[in-house]
Amino acid sequence: MRRTVRHLVLCLAGLLPMAVVLLAAPPAGAQLRSVELYAPRPFGHVIGDTLALSADIVLEAPFRLDPASLPRPRSLDYWLELTDVRLTDGGTRDGAQRYTLELTYQTFYAPLEPKRLAIPAVPLTATDGARQVAITVPPWSFLMSPLREIVAIGEGTTMALRPDIAPRPVATTGTRYGLLAALAGVVAGLGLLAWQMGWWPFSRRRDRPFAHAAREVRAALASSAKPAASSTSPASAPGHRAALLALHRAFDATAGQGVFAEDLPDFFRAHPAFATTEAEVRRLFAASRRLFFGDDPIESAREFPPAELVALARRLRAGERGGA
After folding, report:
1. Residue 256 — left, alpha, or beta (φ > 0 → left; ψ -120 to 50 → alpha)?
2. Is 135 helix (H, G, I), strand (E, B) or coil?
3. What is the pLDDT of residue 119?
4. Is 120 helix (H, G, I), strand (E, B) or coil?
5. CA quadruple 85, 63, 23, 15: dihedral, nearest 10
6. What is the model's pLDDT at position 255?
7. Cα–Cα distance, 41 to 105 (Å, whole number)
8. Average pLDDT per block of 10 residues along the chain, 324 residues long
9. In what order do the strands lie in the sheet with 64-65?
10. What are the residue boundaries of the structural domains of the chain, listed by start?
11. How far apart are CA 306 and CA 115, in angstroms?
12. CB neighbours of 43 closer than 8 A, spacing ≥ 6?
């Protein structure tokens, strides 16, 4: 009896260190805190639907998910395809490394009646650089529905498809009013521009003597350009004379009476839109005096060359528009 008790004590003494070691060793899944799977509704899915699953994975630091263990988008079965895989690192908090794994599947199964299908589990690997731990994202099942009914409830063929959902009307009142307001603004702007520029239908609202004179000046100088180039004079006398006459007629028409050099102060007071051209206009009248009363066309053309004459006509036309 004593021998038996002694053997029993020795056996228990030999097993005691092993038991202490087993109790001190961490459990096999101690590196994994949790895996929580979030999925859409498990019913009412039809062929072609996409299923978005999300898994929150919490690991004990310093373990981290091995990116090489992530699944690649591919065809998993004849009816199921993994289309997208995204891993978001949530960082380390409270001694735990957190991840969010997003998986997008697309189903191509066409059931004839409601049928439950399952998306398989996803095996992953976590590592701390020296050790590896296997992790599994659990599977998920869902119910697929047929696109058509097998037995017709009412009259009609069994292959009749369900009608499309009627689209909801979109409120467009605000958009229409905004479009009409924008169009009204555009029309008003174009009308104002046409009135200012004297375009149709405002072309006859008021005569524009200087606009007409500017055209006559260009035409007169252009017609006499070749003769002037072949002669020794700086400009052809007939063309220069016609250009000066056109401008003088514009001054007379604008003032409503004949305008001479001594009348210019009164003219500029009555028409301040032309005040910026006063110096050139006085030179113009001086050149006209040399041509019409001094009979010196060459000196007149030198005093007011054709290019400056065209430029003055344009400035007078612009002043006429600005004062309209």
Report:
1. left
2. strand
3. 96
4. coil
5. 100
6. 86
7. 14
8. 45 38 38 92 94 95 92 95 96 92 96 93 93 94 84 59 82 93 93 75 68 87 63 60 89 88 89 89 88 78 85 88 68
9. 64-65, 122-127, 132-137
10. 32-144, 209-322
11. 94
12. 142, 143, 145
* CATH for the 32-144 domain, from 3.30.1120, 1.10.150, 1.10.10, 2.60.40: 2.60.40
Q: Which two tokens stand for residue 124?
A: 């992953």
Strands of the chain (E only): list them: 32-38, 50-60, 64-65, 74-75, 80-93, 96-107, 115-119, 122-127, 132-137, 140-144
36: β partners:
56
Alpha carbon 286 to chain centroid, angstroms:
60
3-state secondary structure at position 257 = coil
CA dist 285 and 290 (Å) reads: 9
Q: What are phi and psi of 82, to 5 degrees?
A: -90, 110
Answer for the pair 121, 140: CB distance below 8 angstroms, yes or no.
no
Residue 142's CB: how many other CB atoms inside 10 A? 20
Q: Nearest 10 degrees: CA dihedral of 305, 306, 308, 312?
A: 130
Q: Residue 230 has what pLDDT?
A: 45
Distant-in-sequence, close-in-space partners of 28: CB < 8 Å, separation ≥ 6:
none
pLDDT of residue 163: 81
Token pair 């981290």 in the structure block, residue: 64
Distance CA 126, CA 307 (A): 87
**Encoded tokens for 166:** 């009627």
Separation between Cα atoms, residue 41 and residue 145, nearest integer Å? 13
C-alpha dihedral, 299 to 303 to 307 to 308, nearest 10°? -160
